[in-house]
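#structure-requests
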Amino acid sequence: MLYNISPAAFERLAQRILRESGFSQVEVTGKVGDGGIDGKGIVRVSGLLSFHVIFQCKRYKGSVSPSQIRDFRGAMQGRADKGLFITTGNFTRDALKEATRDGAPPIDLIDGELLCEKLKELKLGITTQLIEQVEIKTEWFDKL
């Protein structure tokens, strides 16, 4: 389903997830020439600390590469304390390393699996049902 929504709708979904997860002042800012920055928000920790976060969204079926992480990091320089990269796909092993490389601002990553877990947890567009199925084993009773 996530592949069927428009890129703008995917950015709005990311905005909603962040808001529901406790971020404030979350805005979608995606514009041409923004260096890949799709939005921004503020996360507060224990009411004492706040971090300005920018995010990038990619509706991919494939993998995000380390160069895309580097490009995003370059775009976030001087604009935010933290970066968040959200994709429907996954991250290559080198992209994971790049996101946490020593000496560079760390970027948090949300892949398709974690994205789906958050949608389920926050009940955004998803309902879950636990169904108990009972089967009678007649052969067990026949042996009594």
